[in-house]
Design goal:
The two termini are 26 Å apart. The chain has helices spanning 2-13, 17-24, 28-36, 43-53, 57-61; strands at residues 80-81, 85-95, 98-107, 112-115, 121-128, 131-135, 138-142, 147-151, 156-160, 165-173. With 197 residues, it is an alpha+beta fold. The strands form 2 sheets. Strands 1-2-3-10-5-8 form a 6-stranded antiparallel beta sheet, with no helix packed on it. Residues 6-60 form the HTH cro/C1-type domain.
């Protein structure tokens, strides 16, 4: 799904692979692999693409889920790993034109994950462990049952303070941050026209 959704988002923004590479600081070869379906993205790659393309992460990763009962088994979800963190996407919820993404987040023991920021509002509820959270230079420490929420466009980071931290991550996006479902798909083998922002 990432290959199709990335091409669609890039085409909608009118960006060439070269321009997307420049803005996201991701190599052209890596982007080409992702668009051909042969790449294996990290959390950092997906968050960077979300930030530059200004779309929810699930607009890049997900197909639209079927209606009705949905059970997500831990062993059936592909883990998105990166610097210090493993994310398992569990559910995309659409409501009032906005989007909410639910993730099982694990910050590995003694490690830190930093983000330059991305689209949306970030909500985290700690389930187990002690989590250090830094948002634009402000530090807080969370324990089991504690919650933090912040504007995800701000630079932020998570640190597992003593052992692995398990938490629920909820990303919230406004309706105007979504990739329209009728956005044009790029022509096979073609490239979107280059435009400057």
């Amino acid at each position: 799904m990432l290959a199709l959704n990335l091409k669609r988002a890039r085409a909608q923004r009118g960006l060439s692979i070269s321009e997307l590479s420049r803005r996201s600081k991701i190599g052209k070869a890596t982007l080409s692999q992702l668009e051909s379906g042969t790449g294996n993205p990290t959390i950092e790659t997906v968050f960077s693409l979300s930030r530059v393309l200004e779309v929810p992460i699930s607009d890049l990763l997900d197909a639209r889920p079927p209606a009705g009962l949905r059970v997500v088994r831990a062993q059936e979800v592909e883990v998105l790993s990166g610097e210090g963190v493993d994310l398992r996407p569990l559910q995309r919820i659409e409501s009032g034109g906005g989007v909410f993404e639910v993730y099982d987040q694990q910050v590995r023991a003694g490690e830190r994950r930093d983000s330059l920021g991305h689209v949306g509002v970030e909500h985290t509820i700690v389930q187990a462990g002690r989590l250090g959270v830094r948002v634009e230079g402000h530090d807080v420490e969370l324990g089991p049952g504690d919650y933090v929420g912040f504007d995800a466009t701000l630079p932020h980071g998570y640190t597992a303070l003593d052992g692995t931290v398990r938490s629920v991550l909820l990303l919230q996006y406004r309706a105007d941050q979504r990739l329209p479902p009728d956005a044009p798909h790029p022509v096979a083998g073609g490239c979107a026209p280059h435009t400057e922002a």
